[in-house]
């Protein structure tokens, strides 16, 4: 049976608008709250909202002083460090158009991008391969920009370009795809229905800073909600993730299945994550809905198919750990969670999802 539930159109993006200003809209109110924690075992480096916004807007000032003007394209050739999201948002705050790229690209590949984009500058970590460009700004200069006076947010038409991302090129040549400032406004439509992100959450993302999935789900979404983003130090082994989740009190875990392959088998992920206090929730709204939400838990075979076929999933603590749930709702959520883990244990002996009949 197909059900259609229409809540009507989402609120239109306001105008004038700036993506970076929207993402950091809580910075003044939550000045001392940790916006970002870079995790390294028992320790972490914290960035408050005030420190983060100062670094972002200072970077915007520095880029403008370097000769760039609103609308100019800036290619990001940075490593897996906090400099990546700061430079990205700093460029957008000043009205520039950053192009985030993978640090694994080769110099010839970046040469084709430079020829295609004609960027005004390249923001570059010297350790990251890049073709030559007349204006390359090093990470050392970017760090110095953090302390400059803040730039004014460049507000304007929400339809104008905010950033550009290249496709992977798996079906042909990589192509540049421009995203408007309003793209971040549209992300709000999935926050409540997908993973229920609130200002009380601490979201741990297992991806790298310079991965666009981390930029969106792991950083921009938490900051726009006033939550705390948790990012493991580069090089953290996947098997260390469960301990980091517990130690740093994560309430949401976002990752690609491959990132958790060494710490939990996707077919057994619920059983394993149950042991560390997490439950899968609303991973793919069109396919399954899981504990921690008012809806009924999905069939376990369908869940397994999702985890193996879809690019990412989210884990959330069971409802009994979240203060916003009432007692009766807690009991219902625990009941759904227990039923789902029972089916998960059964699933190890069940037929393949491709051959088994699933419940709708």
Describe this structure in words.
By secondary structure, this protein is of the alpha/beta class. Helix content is 34%, strand content 16%. It contains twelve helices and 13 strands. It has helices at residues 19-23, 49-65, 83-93, 107-117, 139-145, 182-186, 188-195, 212-225, 241-247, 269-275, 300-309, 327-347; strands at 34-40, 43-48, 73-77, 97-100, 121-124, 136-138, 161-166, 176-180, 202-205, 228-232, 252-255, 279-280, 313-316. The strands form three sheets. The protein has a seven-stranded mixed β-sheet with strand order 2-1-10-9-11-13-12, with helices on both faces. β3, α3 and β4 (97-100) form a beta-alpha-beta unit. α2 (49-65) packs across α3 (83-93) and α2 (49-65) packs across α5 (139-145). The longest helix has 21 residues, at 327-347. The chain starts with 18 loop residues before the first helix and ends in a 13-residue tail after the last helix. Residues 264-314 and 317-360 have low confidence and may be disordered.
Oligomer: single chain
Residue share in β-strands: 15-25%
Rg over alpha carbons = 21 Å
Number of beta strands: 13
Q: Specify the overall morphology.
A: globular
Order of helices and strands: HEEHEHEHEEHEEHHEHEHEHEHEH
Q: Please give the count of helices.
A: 12
Q: Could you report the average pLDDT, rounded to the nearest whole number?
A: 77
Question: What does the largest sheet look like?
Answer: 7 strands, mixed
How widely separated are the two ends? 8 Å
The unreliable regions are 264-314, 317-360
| Strand arrangement, major sheet | 2-1-10-9-11-13-12
Helix amount, in percent?
25-40%
Q: What structural category arises from helix and sheet content? A: alpha/beta
